[in-house]
Structures are given as C-alpha cells and as structure tokens.
TrEMBL record:
Residues 216-268 form the PAC domain. The modification 4-aspartylphosphate is found at D58. CDD domains: HATPase_UhpB-NarQ-NarX-like, PAS, REC. PANTHER family: NITRATE/NITRITE SENSOR PROTEIN NARX-RELATED, OXYGEN SENSOR HISTIDINE KINASE NREB. Residues 290-488 form the Histidine kinase domain. This is Response regulator. It comes from Duganella vulcania. NCBIfam families: sensory_box (TIGR00229). GO terms for molecular function: phosphorelay sensor kinase activity; protein dimerization activity. Keywords: Kinase, Phosphoprotein, Transferase, Two-component regulatory system. Residues 6-125 form the Response regulatory domain. GO terms for cellular component: membrane.
Length: 491
C-alpha cells in the first residue's frame, strides 16, 4: 500500500477546510494525511516543522495574503522545495498568474458551487507528479553540470541559426580569465580573443555550422585576459529531441596548447634535420665533383701517360726492326682498361654532362647508359615547355639523382623489359614521370621505413617543396611521379 500523501491545508474558513477533508477522504486513488492551519503564520510553522508533501493555500488569509505566504516560504531554504497549489476566486486570474510567478506550482479556482472539490485530489496528484518530474530533471541537470564542470575542457551550448548565441558555457572558461557570466554577456568577446588574421574565417565557419546544423571541427588560438596565447580544438555536434527535431549545438573546447607546442617543436626539428640532410647532400655532391675532377686530372693523366710511354716503346721497337716485348702490349691493354674504369667511376661520381649541358641532356644521356649497360629499353622524352626551363644547380641535381635512383631500382628489382622517362611542364609545375612494365612494387616496400633509397628520394624532393608518389600493382608495373612547383625560370 502506498504511503499517504501529507497535505497541509492553509485556509481560514472552517467550512472550506471541512469540504476539503471530505473531498480527500472520498478520493479512491491514494490515502491522504491532512494538516490544517487557519492562518498564514501557523501554516508556515507547520510547513517548517512537518515538511508536508504539498500545501493547499487559500489566497485570502487573516494575517497574510497568499503572495506574502509564498514570499516567506521561498525565503526559507528548508521549505523551499514544497510544492504549493493556490486556491483563488473565479475572478482572480491575475492573482493566479502572479502566484505562479512567485513560486506556486499550480492553482485551482474556487467556484461558488464547490465543483472544484471534485477535482482537488486529482489536481494534487498531478501537481506532485509534475513536481517529481521537475525534481528528477533538476537532479539530472545537476549531475550533468557536475560531470561537465569536472572535465578538463570548456563545454558550451549554442542556439541554432545565423547568430547562434551561446546558451551555456562551463566554468572552465576561467582558463581564459573570464567568468561564464562575462563570456555570455558579450557575444563579441569570443571573436575579439582570436588572431585577427584568422578571425573572420573561424567566425564564418561557426556561423555556417550553427546555421546549417552541421558538425564543427576547428583548431585556433585564443588570447587570454592575462596575455597568454592558448590553442583550442573546438568541436560541436547537433543535439536532437525524441522526435528527431534539431534543438541546439553542443560543443567542447579542448586546450591543446602543449600538443601544439610539441607539434611545432617536432616540425622545427624535422625542418632542421631536412635542412641538415640537404646541406649534407650538397656537400656530398661538391665532394663527388671534386673527387671526380681529381681522378680525371691526376689518375686519368697518369694512366694516359703510362699508355703513351708504352705505345712509344712499342713503336721504337718496331722502327728498330726488333719484335716488341709481349708484356708491353698487355700493359697497353691494361692501361686502356684502367682508363675506361676511371671514366666509369668519374661518371658514377658526377656525370660531366650534368654540369656542361644541363639536366635535360643528362637525363637523356643516362637513359642511353642504362639501356646500353642493362639491356632495358629506356626511352626519355622531355616536353618542349620543360626543355625551355633553366633549372638551378640544386634542383637539377635533385631531379637527376631521383631519376638515377628510380632507374637503378627498375634494373635491380622490377624485372622489366622497358621503362619510360617523361618530363612535362604546365601551370608552374614540373612533372617527372618514370614508369616501367615490370612486376610492380609491393605496398610493404612502399611503407618500409628502412627502404633508404625511397626515403632519400622523398627527402630530396621535400627540400624543394616537391611531392613524390610511387604507385604500383603486382604484375602491372610501377610509376614514380615527381611534381615540383617552380617560379617562371624560362630562358
């Protein structure tokens, strides 16, 4: 059996109190336990001491009006949660409205025929059910606020529409040196704290999200009141009701300052390493050029001299009519082999054609060398627009070395019969494309961080803000595409 509902009747008319008692006694739904007071002060005393489930309050009392009673009741924290139903006259709609504004949960009109008594128990039940729902809602909101306010992030609720005014923001806005009341009172404050150069773009993205009820994902900086600069990730999603109707945007602003600082430090470190790598490559190319020159001038000269002396000795012997020493002919052959080896080493170190005739001639020459040495049919095609470009030494070396590495990989790993090297230029972008008809590169090799040849090509390309992609499928060959943005460098 349900516990009886404790109702405090504050009514100075004894007949009306008796009528109320009879109405509650006749109610079939649940038992009622009634407390009665014939004055406002007595009613307040009973409310404080007995804490009834609800109060049935007459507006006209000998010592207090119903509105004064509500004022005293709401001023007492212990009795604040007691729901009140106001009894008013048939011509007191304004009084009822004011009573509801002052804290009454409901009202009932006392008609002269007493019909209101029939509805009194049901009205009390309805009011208490509504009060229970209200209490549950408040508790849920309190738990939600507690959860939100314990998070290490700024939570907010924004209205839908072009303006998208904030309805709520959590106390964590104090991270920027502002209270929630300050932030909500000045809608322009959010934009004022952004970087001026990105402000309009960020605000437009927010307006678009709230206007279209679309998800928001932004990262931007805000300047705190004390001058600190903080990075935030701002994310918001649409909240819908049970009928799938849009209600508002609920968002969260996460402080990612430390992550951004670490990211910037990492980027700076990567850039420094790439600059160092590029500097080392430049030193390496200079050293190759110097060694090739020294080999050409010193060792090449010595071998040429040796061969010349041997040739002179053989000629003198022939002129004297005596047979030449057989070993001298062998020495001459060995000297020629050594000269050929020196030339090949010099070419591998630094092809002279690259410095003398430029990168386009060097690419055509190297394609011919690959075909002659390996038997791979290698075709090189440089578009006229590209051939008209005069590249600086750094970019020329980069293009040649990447083509050299790519064709070397084709010869060693692709099992291809032919390869094509194409160079095009359009819209300020130079494209180098090397494709083969071999077995195709596997994805594992592309993702292998220990494939130093591929990594080296990527790093060379990145140093000049280029983009390099390698694609391939088993049995369908491999394609390398290098896209290099250029200023106009036409002759």
């Amino acid at each position: 059996m349900n516990a009886p509902l404790r109702v405090l009747i504050v009514e100075d008319d004894a007949v009306d109190r008796m009528a109320c008692r009879r109405a509650f006694a006749a109610a079939p739904d649940a038992p009622f336990e009634l407390l009665e007071a014939d004055s406002g002060e007595q009613g307040l005393a009973l409310a404080r001491s007995q804490r009834p489930d609800c109060i049935l309050l007459d507006y006209h009392l000998p010592d207090l009006t119903g509105l004064e009673f509500l004022a005293h009741l709401n001023g007492d924290g212990a009795a604040l949660a007691i729901p009140v139903m106001m009894l008013t006259g048939a011509d007191s709609a304004a009084v009822a409205a004011e009573a509801m504004r002052r804290g009454a949960r409901d009202y009932l009109v006392k008609d002269v025929d007493g019909y209101y008594l029939e509805f009194l128990p049901g009205a009390i039940h309805r009011m208490l059910r509504e009060q229970s729902l209200l209490d549950d809602k408040r508790q849920a909101e309190a738990r939600f606020r507690t959860l939100i306010e314990q998070m290490q992030a700024i939570s907010y609720i924004a209205e839908l529409g072009e303006e998208g005014a904030l309805r709520y923001i959590s106390p964590q806005i104090g991270l920027l040196g502002f209270s929630p009341a300050e932030w909500l009172a000045d809608p322009a404050l959010h934009g004022q704290r952004m970087d001026p150069d990105r402000r309009e773009a960020i605000l437009e993205a927010m307006r678009r999200s709230r206007r279209d009820a679309s998800p928001l994902h932004l990262e931007y900086r805000l300047h705190a009141r004390d001058g600190r600069t903080l990075w935030f990730r701002d994310q918001a999603e649409l909240v819908r009701d049970e009928q799938d109707q849009p209600l508002f945007m609920q968002g969260i602003m996460i402080d990612i300052t430390q992550t951004k600082l670490a990211e910037q430090a990492l980027l700076a470190s990567q850039q420094a390493l790439r600059s160092l790598s590029a500097h080392q490559e430049q030193i390496k190319e200079h050293e190759r050029k110097r060694i090739a020159q020294e080999i050409h001038d010193e060792l090449g000269g010595l071998l040429t001299g040796i061969k010349a002396y041997v040739a002179v000795s053989i000629e003198r012997a022939a002129a004297a009519g005596s047979p030449a020493e057989p070993l001298l002919a062998e020495v001459a052959g060995l000297a020629q082999d050594a000269i050929d080896t020196v030339r090949r080493v010099i070419t591998d170190l630094r092809p002279s054609v690259l410095d003398q005739l430029g990168v386009w001639a060097a690419l055509e020459w190297y394609a011919e060398q690959v075909e002659r040495r390996s038997g791979l049919h290698c075709q090189c095609a440089v578009a006229p627009a590209a051939a008209a470009l005069e590249l600086d030494a750094g970019r020329s070396t980069m293009l040649f070395r990447i083509a050299q590495e790519a064709l070397t990989n084709v010869v060693r790993h692709a099992g291809a019969r032919s390869a094509t090297l194409q160079v095009d230029y359009a819209d300020g972008v130079l494209e180098l494309r090397i494709s083969d008809d071999g077995q195709g590169i596997e994805a594992e090799r592309l993702l292998n961080r220990e494939s130093w040849g591929i990594l080296g090509m990527h790093e060379r390309c990145r140093h000049f803000d280029g983009e390099l992609k390698i694609t391939g499928k088993p049995g369908e060959g491999t394609t390398l595409l290098l896209r290099l943005p250029l200023d106009e460098r036409r002759e």
